[in-house]
Amino acid sequence: MSNQIERPETVTKNTTSFVIKSLPPCKTKNCSIVSVQIDDYRCIVNSTVQFDQFSPIIGGNDTGKSILVEAIMYALGARIEHVHKSKTETFSVFIKLKVSDGSEKLFQRISSAGVETLKVDQKKVLLKNYREELNQLNVFANATNIFGLERGWESFVVLTPAKFSQLLEKAAGLELNKKLHDDAKRSFEQEKKKKPTGKVRKSANLKKVEEQLNQIYTEITPNPSWKANLEYTCHANSFSGIEMTLRNGSQKMLLMAAGGVDMPVAAVALAVAILMKRQTALLIIDNFQKTFGTEPTPEILDKMEDLSRQGIQMLLTWQSGVMPRVGVRFISTTRALTLKRN
């Protein structure tokens, strides 16, 4: 089966249409969330939530949906400002990840009176090592390849192609690897200056980082010049249509197309996931209606579920009222979470 995303025959106003075909297998380790256990994180107490590859999280106002998402982000290494400043509260978040090789990893962050304890597989580690363990699973928590789309999506949509490319590089972990490469390269150049007439070999560290960079570029696209050739269109402020394409030589591949005002931002989010070619471990969409300005229609949910079957775990939160199709397990926050009551 072709990996190409085919252009819909027609894209008309007020409709959304796109076709997703199977993605190539991921060559690097990836992971998905099995469960999260939350103890006294903000208003959530003593709650354990199990997740599937496609997990709608549904509940009314003030039922803990966004706080659940925030707790997940915190457990995955993100810096949450109000949590960082807290000097009196005691809480913990414990998250279990399933790795693509079948193994499991356990991560736990505990905060007590402003002092933080971090554990990986029950062993205490520093925050730096905690995040490094997550990086090995393609999880870069600080707004990289975990997308919490509730805030700031307007600027995300109108990025120039160059800025959009930079975001994709960051999402694929290139930012971290580029820094390692620059540091190793600098050492190499300094050694060359010390021995202007002698031959200086590349260090093992520089070779390793160069290999990592090449592997990431290969995973993103077969064409390393993708950055200069990435194209997408967004029709003014009306968001009447979005088309994202990727050029590979003379071949233009449509990644995503959307017409009408129903779902422009969803098209962008899914296109990003496809561009990552399963580098994205997790796609979080908090408050679906607010993010996209539309209800999670059956067509939208079916397409997102299709993508989740191909290796990208999706956690979607939305207000009560719209239910997923019969057979899809969803998480009701009123049942799954125990909340403190003032």
TrEMBL record:
Residues 33-221 form the Endonuclease GajA/Old nuclease/RecF-like AAA domain. The chain crosses the membrane at residues 253-275. Keywords: Membrane, Transmembrane, Transmembrane helix. The keyword Membrane applies. Pfam families: AAA_15. The keyword Nucleotide-binding does not apply. Coiled coil: none annotated. This is AAA_15 domain-containing protein. It comes from Caenorhabditis tropicalis.
